[in-house]
Amino acid sequence: MAHSFSCNFTNIMMEPEVKDFLRRIVWSVVLGFFWLMLTLGIGAYNNLLVPENGITIGNIIFYIWFVLSLSGLIWTYYRLWRKKFPHG
User: Fold this and answer.
1) Is residue 26 domain-resident?
2) Is 62 within a domain?
3) Within-domain flag for 3
4) 2, 16, 49, 53: most buried by Cβ count inside 10 Å?
5) DSSP single-letter state for residue 10
């Protein structure tokens, strides 16, 4: 008889504050890694990271994207971490 293994991490016996803290950490790492891979992937694939033969309109658009998306990421981190934790 085969046993199926299933693990549901939401049912692990853990205090709600600890669960919330770990969830925030995971979301922060995932969002940061996704932003980094997306931005560097676009920039490296299209040779936009370093302007080698002068600044082009593509470099300008890329760096505008970089600044705006980084601002959005920081704003998302702020919203994610603004809730205070109870200190015991």
Assistant:
1) no
2) yes
3) no
4) 49
5) G
